[in-house]
Amino acid sequence: MMLRTLLLAALMAGTISGILLTAIQQLQVTPLIVEAETYEPGAGHAQTHDHATSAAETSGNDENDQRLLLSLLSNVFAGIGFSLLVASAITLSNQKGWRKGLLWGGAGFIVFFAAPALGLPPKLPGTTGASLLDQQLWWISTAAASAVGIALLVFSRPRLLKGIGVLILLIPHIAGAPQPEQVYSLAPEFLAQQFVIASAISNATFWLLLGLMIGHFLRNLDDSPLT
Known about the structure:
Layout: H1 2-37, H2 50-93, H3 98-119, H4 132-155, H5 159-175, H6 189-217
């Protein structure tokens, strides 16, 4: 019964949060990506014939629909996966209720977005970056260090462990994120700043809603065996 409740809570919270994230991205994030793509070489060539223009518009609409569908599926699946993680943490720590859920959602935002974004902020198309592998390794290590550091700060009582938690939080940023040899962006700076802000808002909304719903759905979960 407990396992079924946990899975249903994760499924509902992940699906709803993923749909909301997609909607916010369509309103705030995707338009910035589309605008940034216009600064890429060859993006500004206009069609001179009506037939060619119509075909280009149709192709563009199909591409936008495909992008929307892929984003929706990706966000929903990611939402369900993160919901399972948060639901497991809430259950093991016995911190249920929507208020506790908000705190867990805030922690998820810090671990999986805010902390990595301090070194590797979201980038628009046409922006240089270090090798993908280096970025992925740094992102994973930063998320893991953030999770461990926050856990030590919140759940440990000895000051020594709390101090270790702070140190673990800082280590990835002291080491520094991987950077390209030359930094440049085809899109203007103001557009890049808007993209970072829009990404932060959409991710914060996603995580806070996810945590709130998980905490709410699990508020009456008893301590019966996982069956």
